[in-house]
TrEMBL record:
<dbReference type="GO" id="GO:0016620">
    <property type="term" value="F:oxidoreductase activity, acting on the aldehyde or oxo group of donors, NAD or NADP as acceptor"/>
</dbReference>
<dbReference type="InterPro" id="IPR016163">
    <property type="entry name" value="Ald_DH_C"/>
</dbReference>
<dbReference type="Pfam" id="PF00171">
    <property type="entry name" value="Aldedh"/>
</dbReference>
<protein>
    <submittedName>
        <fullName>Aldedh domain-containing protein</fullName>
    </submittedName>
</protein>
<feature type="domain" description="Aldehyde dehydrogenase">
    <location>
        <begin position="36"/>
        <end position="492"/>
    </location>
</feature>
<dbReference type="InterPro" id="IPR015590">
    <property type="entry name" value="Aldehyde_DH_dom"/>
</dbReference>
<comment type="similarity">
    <text>Belongs to the aldehyde dehydrogenase family.</text>
</comment>
<dbReference type="InterPro" id="IPR016161">
    <property type="entry name" value="Ald_DH/histidinol_DH"/>
</dbReference>
<keyword id="KW-0560">Oxidoreductase</keyword>
<dbReference type="InterPro" id="IPR016160">
    <property type="entry name" value="Ald_DH_CS_CYS"/>
</dbReference>
<dbReference type="InterPro" id="IPR016162">
    <property type="entry name" value="Ald_DH_N"/>
</dbReference>
Amino acid sequence: MRILPNMMNLNSLKDSKLLDLSSHFVGGNHVEFPSDKEFKVIEPRSGKVLTTWHFATKDQVDTTVKTAKTAQEHWANSTWMERSEILKKTADLLKTHCNDIAYWECISNGKPISEARADVLSCVDTFNFYSGVAHDLLGRHIPLDSARYAYTRRLPVGVVAAIGAWNYPIQTCTWKTAPALACGNSVIYKPSPLSPVTALILAEVLKCAGLPNGVFNVIQGDAETSQHLILHNDVAKVSFTGSIPTGKKIMKSCAERNIKPITLELGGKSSLIILNDADVDSAVSCAMMANFYSQGQVCSNASKVLVHRSLLEELTTKLVNRTKLMKVGDPLKEETKVGAHISADHRNNVEGYINSAIAEGATKLCGGDRITVEGLENGFYLSPCILTNITPKMKVYREEIFGAVLLLIPFDTEEEAITIANDTDMGLAAGLVTKDLARSYRVSEKLNAGNVYVNTFNDVSPLVPFGGIGQSGFGRENGIAVLESYTHQKSVFVNTGDCPNPF
Ligand code: NAD
């Protein structure tokens, strides 16, 4: 293992030679393990190779788990005040360096800089929130009779393996790391090789905030690396964000050698229902928000936009007009609304969905065109697309597209809309637009989804649990709910009298 000088003074983050450093962050250091498995870090906005890093091998995973296990034993004994202070300081540092961290998020992921900044600020909120949850980790005292009582303790699970997707790199890492650390666990985070940069920055920020070495570690890896990590006997818990097929494999591995608790945040196929009393302009905003953020690469996106037939014509015209005005281009520019897709392959997949829909009879109303951005000619750009004449047999109706492709589907009755929205075995999100409060309550109750949005979409807060049902996975991130995932409860029975002897 080669230890490299620590990355940076956070003050010169943007100009740092971050990419010249190393693939991994283990035991408080940037390290390069010798490995023959290289991967190229690609900048989506230009298609350029930013650097070449390495996937960790099994031996390197073992070294990292050993480091994390030793560190966790000390971290678990730290006081709630010590943990709170470090998490609060992390939030402060993320806020101070928000612009520079957002810059790297934009470079590494291709999302517009304004969105990247919002993501970093959401991480600030998350660390702030979990710096104050100590009282939610308290146990209970349970009186049983005059001589007996029980008490419960909430204890850290140990070493957490956290595996992330590429679409919200620093946010996904934070959603897992902040609560896991608050509970006294250590974390080994494995980012997606498609956006592996900002987890290393978060590691540096946590170190600057005073987190002891080895409590938070980052290793780069592919499926093989992840599997070594998941199967390791000293990894006590797995938290995964990614696709359904990978989630299934991970679930299987978690039962192979041990019975390992797991959180699965998987894909979705969500709907937004625009009811006949909706304000059309507001509904258009909602539909765009539900489809075009992060180039549509959002797990909870409502690709099926169900519109009451009475509003269809007006809404379609306004939606298409506003969509055509969206500025596709260099994500580093403030005016850009649609940046680059994560990779050429993914851009091709999204195009494939559009082409398959058209081949099956759909009509394209706008978008879906490759955009060439001057100076960034090899970037992965595609304009946001709206399709109509969609039928339930089409691939786009059933499968997650994970791109900016909005499917306009008319309906006549509330019941019909609910049936279409629930016509999926995934259950991550659903939404509705209405001015009628009673109606919003009634419809929300009937939607089979972990998250429902009324007159908004993809809203998020660290106070509110987030997660899916059905094939979208189980377990929750955010809120107090996530603390269940990173602790186990111990119940202690105490008899203050003589020990009962039944024999
Ligand atoms: P993916 O499943 O291809 O990869 C996710 C992670 O798993 C990566 O780090 C990858 O290296 C790793 N991995 C791949 N194969 C593996 C294997 N066999 N064993 C263990 N690990 C493996 O997903 P992706 O393309 O990175 O992300 C897109 C998917 O993530 C979409 O389906 C999206 O909906 C979903 N997602 C869900 C949420 C949520 O909160 N529900 C959030 C973001 C993304």
